[in-house]
Amino acid sequence: MGKNRSRRRLLTLVASVCLVAALTPPARGASSVAQLLERVPTDNAAEFEDVGKALVALGPAGVRELAGRLGEEPQDAKVCFALHGLVDYAGRPGAEAERTMVAEALCDVLRSDAPAAAKSYALNELRLVGKGESVGATKALLSVGGLCEPAAQTLVSIGTPGALEALRSSAQGLGGKRRLTVLYALGRSRDRGAVALLTKEARGKDAAVRRAAVYALANIGAPEAADVLREAAKEDPERDNKALALFGSSAYSPKVRSPKNINLLKEATVGSFVLDMRALSTNKEYGHRDLCFFFGYQDPSHFYYAHIASKADAHAHSIFLVDGKPRVSIATSRTKGVTWDDQWHAVRIVRDADTGKIEVYFDDMSKPIMIAEDKHFTWGRVGVGSFDDTGMFDDIRLRGDLREPGPPPSSEAAAPAAVEAAGADGGVKITELEDVVRVELGGALLTEYHYKDADRPYFYPVIGPTGVNVTRDWPMKEGDEAKDEQRDHKHHRGLWFTHGAVNGHDFWSEGRGPRIAQNRIVRASSDRSSGVIETESTWVTKDGTPICTDRRRHIFHATSAGAARMMDIEITLRATHGKLVLGDTKEGSMAVRVAPTMRVKGKVGRGHLVTSEGRRDGQAWGKRARWCDAYGPVNGNVVGIAIFDHPSNPRHPTWWHARTYGLVAANPFGVHYFEKKPAGAGDLTVPDGEEVRFRYRILVHAGDEKEGEVEKHYRAFADEKRADVTEDAR
Questions:
Q1: pTM higher than 0.85, yes or no?
Q2: CATH code of the region 246-402
């Protein structure tokens, strides 16, 4: 009896094991990952998302396998693309379990014996999805040579209390360059909890450590650090003299575009002079490291300054004139830049008020690094400072002709040749070429309108007031020209308008069939004050069936050299082929993809997002606002591009499909996604034979949203009445 009962229990156990095995799906191994890798790179956003979704569905084992395929450089582009798609999908709002799974798989790479290049790539992706679970594995790499910098930056991006504590504790245990790297990272994290540690380091014996700690304290800006920052004015322990320290940005906001941090010598108004000093940059190199030297200072809107920077461009490393207008370069010759390092450098400025000649020297006193000739201000005060960098100044010696201050300068004083209206070479000039329409401002390229090489019209490049393109180059450019670009979302081309659900058809993606086919250019005209491109297009499905038509007016405003660029886009969608439904989807509509350094996140991203309601970076997504601005450094200068939603637009203020990877899109339709309302809640229906209009302004400006006066520009736009799209035929 007992023997039979035992046998029955054994049979039951075996049966249970077999049943579990039968119900467990087969593990997805290498073949599944390999099949998905064959699908990348994708051609559009939908496929990109599908691949990310399929990779997540493989579960932890599949995700670890994909991450484990990272190898030595050059890495497999397919693996990198797929992994980024996985991270992008798992990092979407409301997917915490999937985010955690992907982050833990990336941490497995960090803990493994994978090559350093693979771990570096995994660290970069962890900046997008890593949270508390990633701190331990990331912290461990702070002690590894070439991985210390990316690990420190990843902890800064994670930003949790645990991540900041990891940086603080490591700063005390590491030595050499790794210690400096962590101290600089504490500054970038603006960790108030590190002030006590940094204060101690700023009073230590190691000069490099002191400089790193001073930099960090200046970035944090804690009031309790004021004393130690003042103490940092001492150059070396063996020297008993003091130096002037610029350790943080002032609250001063200039009326015109010019430096924010200015310290003037007291009771010294001079005509001709020679100014000598030693200068030390305490900033870490970021491509635009600089200090400023002022002279001929009359008042906050009238002076000269020499901007000595590590790299020259339109607004860096030159002699500038501020004459009641944004600063203008007046140098007739200059070098390509100087080397700012952790050493003191000799600076000399020579001014001859009679001839107007200005010479600036750096270390080598036999050959100037920049020269100018100008007589706007033949007397004035002198001083030192910067736009927003930190530094020190010592052994300041001024020799010159003392002068009594004269009457205040006229804001209408004649400007030098460099300060000409952009229209001096013909204002706005629009030229129709074979496959694009070229728009020039003041003889220089502003943008080009493309309508033949993609599924929808778009503008690329978009040149800002500093002379650089503020939009992403890929996929319009390939290879080295776009080496810092991430190859995601191929349909994100420059600046464009479209929508992802029009009578159920996806016009947002590229390569799926639906397209906006331009019928004709109604008008392309320009003069000194403005230019206009008007077009008519038909929205057609994959099989060529027309859904609706649109009429677009693009207006380009003439602005002066160095001023913000303005472009109006007025779009009338017409239900010419039956009822038109603009569907509820996040994929739309008035959009721009910004340059890689203007991104909030990413390998080279150093930018920010901000809305009219004050929401910043990741908080901007899915929220309503009158405008949204993306800004960040491009070739050393901070520039921004903002989209304005006119008050007359449907559902103003609009929602924003604004992503930290570089997309900014005004979208009045995606209510289901943004507000978590029932699907279709955001549908907008246009009855057959009727139309709906949208009006936007694009503002490309220098500086952040405050320096660019974005709100002021928006109010001026909001007060304008909408002009009807003209009906004249060509």
A1: no
A2: 2.60.120.200
